[in-house]
Amino acid sequence: MADFQAVADQFVQFYYQTFDENRQNLATLYRDNSMLTFENTPIQGAAGIVEKLSSLPFQKVLHKWSTADAQPSSEGGGILVMVTGALLVDEEQKPMSYTQTFQLLPDGQGSYYVFNDIFRLVYPAA
Amino acid sequence: MADFQAVADQFVQFYYQTFDENRQNLATLYRDNSMLTFENTPIQGAAGIVEKLSSLPFQKVLHKWSTADAQPSSEGGGILVMVTGALLVDEEQKPMSYTQTFQLLPDGQGSYYVFNDIFRLVYPAA
After folding, report:
1. Structural domains in chain A (count)
2. Residue B54 belongs to domain with CATH number
3. Which residues of chain B does A96 touch, with a Cβ-Cβ cutoff of 8 Å?
């Protein structure tokens, strides 16, 4: 397995574990130039992104990701990751499918931060 | 609407129209350094990518994309696009959900080519 795929797997594991435990702690993964497009709503910057994620109208959430495909995204060491999975909120018994794409960029200190983040629920095809 | 979103919309419209009419013609959208990850299979280079897409085991395909969210992906003018939609193959009546992420890079001649391409079918959450 290429190195970028290992980084992507580790990131995705950490991201959703953190999201499901305490969304506020995601702040360390974003920077001021990070972008989130959440169900068509664009937000820029770590503070706004975490405020958005923290204000989503559920108390409990559980992400079960099933695929995370990675590719190198730039000569500078960026990594593109596309995730598909399912999530459960609160006491809801029926999971919803979702897809999420991240571009991770090196943070200059041996780790990565989220530069691009796009999230969509995926509804069953009619 | 920001310019990158307009480019993304135009690209997605053209990409799926070309895919559904004649997959061989997608060759002009890729370069030798382009990457495709198609249902977990990685392929590099325009020739291999088009060979893969052309050999998919269906004669007819119709993509109906429903969302295409775009963000700037690099200082060099790259554009990240995440698509969700449904597709129908051959005489099948039941559409399948899919998601696909592209990174478009400027080709130096006023247009763009596909540098990253990741495709996954999305199955209903169990």
Report:
1. 1
2. 3.10.450.50
3. 125
